[in-house]
Amino acid sequence: MKGLFCNILFLFLLGNSGTKADLQRQAIAKSRHSFLKLLPNAGYHPVTYYVHPQLGNDANAGTSKGQAFKTLAPIGQLALHPGDRVVLAAGETYAGSIQLINQEGSPEHPIIITSMDWDNGKQKKPATIDFKGRANGILIQDCSYIRVSHLRFTGNGYADDPDTATMRCGVLVKNQNRQLMTGIQLDHLFIQDVYYENPGFVRSASEVKSANGTQRYGWGIRVISTTAGQLVEHLTIADCDITDVSHTGIKLTGSDKNISNVNLLRNQVTYTGGPGIQMSEVKNVYVAHNVVDHSGSANDSRKWGRGSGLWTWGSSNVLIEKNRFSYANGPGDSDGAHIDFNCSNIIIQYNLSCYNAGGFCEILGNTYHCIYRYNISVNDGYRIKGKDGAFQEGKTLWLSGYQGTHQPRKGPVNTYIYNNTIYADATLQPKIAFDNTSEDVMIANNIFYVVNPFQLVLGDQYKPDENNNRRIKNM
Question: What pTM was computed for the model?
Fold first, then answer.
């Protein structure tokens, strides 16, 4: 019944003048809502929308291969329902971006955006969305129960004049107006070459000394909810490959820990200009089986050039296990994984950390109940302050009381470092810095194999720790 009505409506619209495609989509969406209201007991049959850049036409209905859309623009005008799918032709390239705003799937039937083999399995590559000059490859705003999978994103600069956006993101998940966004799943996405600026642009020399950069960058996947009380819950980012973005690969930015119940699983994040993975103001996060390599990369002049493999700030209840963090670069921070200030209950365990310039263990101030255990560290902390622009020493172990530029030093408190295996060969001078505002520190049952003896140094988060006679309480 619904299908017959939509076909009649489609034929009627084709016979009228005006913006036929827009009128058609609006009328079809309105009719679908009407049918669901008139027939509340009738089952809704999900619709698949097709998009093909060569064979489609935006005047089409989009509901079959023969009636495929041509561009990504009509997707933003659809009223999608639980179980609906939008499929792009595998191996094809689409210019532009996808806008999903106020779309709602269900736990059992999420709305799916994906690639498909158009010709019976002949093409195995995912569809590519080239969002050059656009803010995002896909925007998911004020939506719930959305799955985006098996797509490739690239956004390398701009064509003519730069756009007015403040950043460029492969995927942006944003809670703008909702009390709750939930059930977002991003998997099997390949994100490469995301830069705000064009090739040849050179960052200012002072940029890498700022806390997170002040200029416009490209990011892999960003999740943002900056209004406390507007929640993002039950988010999964899994099996994604992110490489060559000018800032962070995967970044979560919340407020008052309003992003929660997050899984970051089996992702590969390489050659990011900033950190590989970074999370602020989140809680209840599980990070496992990820590979983060060459964070803080400076192999492109547009990259920030500084970043730990992973770091947390203002976050609680985060378990980070069975990951590999290697070759982090930068004049400051740039550890395998570090815990920034205002965190609690962060556990870093069973990870391999190797050849990271900044070090193995870094815990900043006002942190409580944080643990490094059962990790393996190989030649971490080789950076030398004053060499090649470095403004911090590399350190094997660093407990810093820093909790902000204008705040007094405090903590960390209740820190446990045990059962780790730490190796440093003759190529580096291993260093340790413990701020004497730290309290309740236990270091036990670790294996240290170092060729050169450890050197005690002052911590140097923007300014050195005070050198006084205070002793750490309960060390």
Answer: 0.90
For 303-350, the pLDDT digits (tens) are 999 999 999 999 999 999 999 999 999 999 999 999 999 999 999 999
pLDDT tens for 91-121 read 999 999 999 999 999 999 999 999 999 987 6
Phi/psi at 34 (5° precision): -65, -45
